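Researcher: Checking consistency across runs. Here is Outer membrane protein beta-barrel domain-containing protein again:
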Amino acid sequence: MKRSIKSILALSAVSALAIIPTFLPVGKASAQTFTTNGTDANYLGGGISVGVTDGDSPIYDDDSKVGGNVQGRFAIPNAPISARGAILFGGDSTALMPLVTYDVPVAPNTNLYLGGGYSFNTEEGQSSPLGNKDAIVLTAGAESEVGSNVVVYGDAKWGIDSYRDSDSDAVSIQAGAAYRFN
């Protein structure tokens, strides 16, 4: 029962994040604020990924893993949301994640973001930086343009109930640099 409640709460949080932009004003001033203060960059990049948890299973490979990441962002025009993708690799498996985030401009060319999605583990039972099974994922991070076509990013991902035969959640931290392609 504990597992079901955590999953329901996580799904509720992700759903709420996905529909919030529907109720926000999208007038001219709102769109200008988003594009002039933060970044509207579409990008693809890579870097390091570090799993900081393990699942304590005596049966499955669930040790924390250090590896790499490939991450991308597609900013939805005139809206404070983005479609993102992340690939975390290291260990004997890879976690593939489609994500949706709510982006908050905090300084020129800089955003904070919060969102969620789902992690698909390519080898169930084998560790990636974000656990060893498919799971709901929440993410929080920051991104900033530091050059004409260069974006740096960093985030944390929380995989809810993402270890086999364990009630443990997984947490990974990512950092990287990306090429802006728009």
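Researcher: Does this match what you'd expect to see?
Model: One thing to look at in this run: The first strand starts at residue 43 and ends at 51.
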